[in-house]
Amino acid sequence: MKRLFMALLLCGAIGNTTTLSAQTSKSTPSRITISTGIGLLPTYTKASENNGMLPVSFMLGYDLTKNFTLGAFFGFSSTTSSSKDFIDNGGSFVTNKTKVFGLRTEVKKPFSEKVAGYGGVMLGVHHADVKEYQNQTKALVIRPEGGPTPFNPNAKKGRLAYAAYMGATYKVAKRVSLYGELGYGISIVNIGVTVRI
């Protein structure tokens, strides 16, 4: 809960700082948005992994038209598994540091002056850096070819990723909105802040 509070506090501070600087700029609405969010449902929970941190995401968007946005996405997640008895002398644990880079298309539908829905698709790259460590010494475990292992050591770290998503925004100030989103990315459920600069 403390991590969630600190992440939301950071999102709010970024939004307020950007809003204050934007108030001194031109009064016409900008086409550029910056979003930052946190994931509430990481994609690795099914593997009984404990989150070292909440997944975070950053997006940069450009409004090509009033209801269509093209954007860039970056997400990061770090998880650590529970201990397993795959090796002698105390077992081992696995860490997974995942990064997602992508391009997003977004179609928006306003429902009122403050509320809008949106949906779209993303095409990107999913990069997972998975490593195994000994419990007691925290030393990196290097397994022989064909030996028992808690994960596939020969799996490709990077792969093409595509996803569909949908969400909603709620405007809290002239240039600041809150958003909630469902879809595959760095997390299945995301919430965050969007600032128009």
Topology, pairings included?
Blueprint: H1 2-23, E1 32-39, E2 49-51, E3 56-65, E4 68-81, E5 92-110, E6 115-134, E7 158-171, E8 176-183, E9 189-196
Antiparallel strand pairs: 1-3, 1-9, 2-4, 3-4, 4-5, 5-6, 6-7, 7-8, 8-9
A few lines on this structure:
With 197 residues, the protein is mainly β. It is built from one helix and nine strands, in the order H-E-E-E-E-E-E-E-E-E. The chain has one domain (2-196): Porin (Beta Barrel).
Please, could you describe this protein's structure?
Helix content is 11%, strand content 53%. The chain is mostly beta strands and 197 residues long. It contains 1 helix and 9 strands. Residues 4-26 have low confidence and may be disordered. It has a single domain, classed as Porin (Beta Barrel). The two termini are 30 Å apart. The chain has an 8-stranded antiparallel beta barrel with strand order 1-3-4-5-6-7-8-9.
How many domains would you count in the coordinates? 1
CATH topology: Porin
Put simply, the count of helices is 1
Q: How many DSSP-defined strands?
A: 9
Average residue-wise pLDDT = 81
Approximate helicity band? 10-25%
Assembly form of the protein: single chain
Beta-strand share of residues? over 45%
Q: What sequence of helices (H) and strands (E) makes up the elements?
A: HEEEEEEEEE
